[in-house]
Amino acid sequence: MKTKHIHLIGICGTAMASLAGMLQQIGHSVTGSDAAAYPPMSDQLAALRIPVHEPYAEINLTPRPDLVVVGNAISRGNVELEYVLDQRIPFTSMAALLHDEFLPNRESLVVAGTHGKTTTTSMLAWIYEVASHTHPELAPSFLIGGLAENFGRSFLVRGTRPFLLEGDEYDTAFFDKGPKFLHYFPDAAILTHVEFDHADIYPDLPAVKTAFKRLVNLIPRRGRVVAFDASLNVTECIDRAFCAVERYGLLPSSYWHIANLTHEGTTSTWDLRRKGEPFATLTLPMAGEHNAFNATAAAALAAGQGVPTEAIVEALATFRSVKRRLEVRAEVHGITIIDDFAHHPTAIRETLRALRTSYRGRRLVAILEPRSNTLRRNVFEQDLVDSLALADQVVLAGVFKSESIPVTERLHPENVAASLRARNIPATVYPDADAIVEALTPQLKSGDVIAILSNGGFGNIYEKLPNAIAEAPADILN
């Protein structure tokens, strides 16, 4: 293999940072650039000693790289992209390079859906990892859109056949507006949920469903799709599959049936039935019905690919979640601060439901930064109100980069707060993280649970709020 100097524009995205590590692992020299870096991906890149240049600049492309990977967040006008085009430096996308460099002669297993992709892919990877202790040929390679805590990383490349991929329906690059997951040609796949999302690139729900239908249409006849059973949208997307279809969920008629689901604190337990017959009793050290669904999907796909049942049971019992998915960031003066990568009203609803289960009887404060391209728009304003109403108190930040969203399409946090107050739920809006920390800290009491909901850096509120609570007079917080 000829080694190359490969430069990634937009390297701090979760998939791009993972690709950077994978390229380095197989011997390439890797550099990258981004407008801003924040954990956990900035930490991963630093640990790998991959140079990350900030901000974007032509000088970052000196010496001239052999190949440039253009992230899907990079648009015409970016100074580095314009230089690449002017100088005719070869370029590609993350998804295309992944297909060309890593997927030949592999078994491609893709986890797709509007919600649950990262957690489910992490569970699947850990199942395969545990199974590899007795069956070395099952040792997985993987790319996950988050940092899997069991591995302490978001990627791994091995010489074995299984390659587990989080399949993102977002577009691929400025020159390829198709979904990234269409580059992955799955041998088998999971489809968790299908809802309207990514309002910046999909005009409506039918367009989203078309993308997932195309993914299902790529699965060969010998393959399988494991699909959630309680979604008409999912049913429509798998309706014309050429491969075997296995539904999973709470319906007794489903191929994989979840029975006797119970939650005790942060632990979930259920009996899983396969075609009406007992398969296993599963225990997961995570709260929330949605996580039981995620684990069931991972178990189902793994079992169908020949992974031993005992490895599935052991792996789920020892699963350690994903960074920024219901992650406890701090416990200060009896106040618990949770970080969750919220991007959609449904995800927010399930996060708050899980926290209600885990922290019964404690006041739940939700702090939301409308940052994803979906949440920054008003298309889901009422759904957002309904989701946030599960909290006892709500604090909203201003819309991230609101100027980039037309006023007629933009979410107005003041409207969300007013609707919540009409339901007798205290709700306030502050412009940024600093204002939130200053205003909220004196209101907090020991026993409170704070859920910080954002898919970005959020002005480093994850550090600022615990520090402010730690410095507050103890008598105020009791």
UniProtKB/TrEMBL annotation:
Listed name of the protein: UDP-N-acetylmuramate:L-alanyl-gamma-D-glutamyl-meso-diaminopimelate ligase
Cross-referenced NCBIfam families: mpl
Highest rank taxon of the organism: Bacteria
Give the Pfam families listed for this entry: Mur_ligase, Mur_ligase_C, Mur_ligase_M
| The keyword Ribonucleoprotein appears for this protein | no
Q: Where is the Mur ligase central domain?
A: 111-302
Mur ligase C-terminal domain mapped to chain residues: 324-456
Q: Which GO terms describe its biological process?
A: cell division; cell wall organization; peptidoglycan biosynthetic process; regulation of cell shape
Species this chain originates from: Granulicella sibirica
The molecular function terms of the Gene Ontology recorded here are: acid-amino acid ligase activity; ATP binding
Q: Does the keyword Signal apply?
A: yes
| UniProt keywords, alphabetically | ATP-binding, Cell cycle, Cell division, Cell shape, Cell wall biogenesis/degradation, Ligase, Nucleotide-binding, Peptidoglycan synthesis, Signal
**Residues in the signal sequence:** 1-17
In what residue span(s) does the Mur ligase N-terminal catalytic domain sit?
A: 5-99
